[in-house]
């Protein structure tokens, strides 16, 4: 088993007033050659967006872009005619493919929006752009992995990559196993809230660990803990 530790305090940080963001991997003005990607996982931004503010229309291509709201709601519009609101419990994906333009705004004029935005290198380039969003019951991740993004799992939003996103909310003093779906994949495990341990490494809030060359991983929780597991091809 090989591991790489990503301490929350070592992430890139940008404060634009209306937007405060922490970058696990190199992004915008933050560049760290040791933190450019984990396998096919290219971007994991922890964004805090002020009430009524957001990103105006801008283009993307050839990324799988996953948005997971943590608090508040996102208003989304894109060049394919999609317009919707996503909130905690929802997961949104765009296969940008050959090209798409979209905007993202805090849907509230009063409350802060908190979300993860995650970019994954695609399996096939220049596909027709796609959009999907689904709502997942929060109770479905209690002491269990809830598969929210997958190329194969029924009920998950589809991704153009051999990648699997799982969310779990586990009790304190639990032993949680994560088993790889695909040989050669690794898994990027982030503590969203709480505290856990993997291979002797203690992970606090927003700490993460990448694990590969292994079939399964055991996570020990020392407090009530929310986890995000992104299983991802390591060869890109």
Find the count of extended strands (DSSP E, 2+ residues).
22
Query: What is the number of helices?
Result: 0
CATH fold topology of the largest domain: Jelly Rolls
Beta-strand proportion: over 45%
CATH level-1 class of the largest domain: Mainly Beta
Residue stretches low in confidence (pLDDT < 50, at least 5 long) are none
The total tally of domains equals 2
The value of Rg in angstroms is 17 Å
Strand order of the largest sheet: 1-20-17-22-15-13-14
Question: Any overview of this molecule?
Answer:
The mean pLDDT is 97. With 236 residues, the chain is mainly beta. Strand 2 (12-15) and strand 3 (19-23) form a beta hairpin. Strands 1-20-17-22-15-13-14 form a seven-stranded mixed β-sheet, with no helix packed on it. Strands 2-3-4-11-6-9-12 form a seven-stranded antiparallel β-sheet, with no helix packed on it. The radius of gyration is 17 Å and the shape is globular. The protein is built from no helices and 22 strands. The protein has two domains: 10-125, Sandwich (Jelly Rolls), CATH 2.60.120.10; 138-233, Jelly Rolls (Sandwich), CATH 2.60.120.10.
Offer a concise description of the structure.
The chain has 236 residues and is mainly β. It has strands at residues 2-6, 12-15, 19-23, 41-49, 54-60, 64-71, 73-78, 83-87, 90-95, 100-106, 113-120, 130-135, 146-150, 157-158, 164-170, 175-179, 185-193, 196-198, 201-203, 208-212, 216-221, 225-233. It has no helices and 22 strands.
């Amino acid at each position: 088993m090989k591991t790489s530790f990503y301490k929350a305090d070592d992430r890139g940080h940008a404060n634009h007033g209306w937007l405060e963001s922490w970058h696990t991997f190199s992004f915008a003005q933050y560049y760290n050659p040791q933190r450019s990607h984990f396998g096919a996982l290219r971007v994991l931004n922890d964004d805090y967006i002020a009430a009524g503010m957001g990103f105006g229309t801008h283009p993307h291509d050839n990324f799988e872009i996953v948005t997971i709201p943590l608090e508040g709601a996102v208003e989304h519009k894109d060049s394919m005619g999609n317009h919707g609101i996503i909130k905690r419990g929802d997961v949104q994906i765009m296969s940008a493919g050959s090209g798409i333009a979209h905007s993202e705004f805090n849907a509230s004029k009063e409350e802060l929006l908190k979300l993860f935005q995650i970019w994954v290198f695609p399996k096939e380039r220049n596909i027709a752009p796609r959009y999907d969003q689904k709502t997942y019951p929060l109770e479905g991740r209690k002491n269990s992995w809830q598969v929210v993004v997958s190329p194969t799992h029924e009920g998950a939003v589809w991704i153009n990559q051999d990648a699997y996103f799982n969310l779990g909310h586990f009790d304190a003093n639990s032993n949680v196993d994560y088993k790889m779906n695909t040989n050669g994949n690794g898994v990027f495990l982030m503590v969203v809230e709480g505290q856990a341990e993997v291979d002797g490494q203690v992970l606090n809030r927003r700490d993460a660990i990448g694990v590969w060359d292994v079939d399964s991983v055991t996570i020990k929780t020392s407090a009530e803990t929310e986890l995000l597991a992104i299983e991802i091809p390591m060869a890109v």
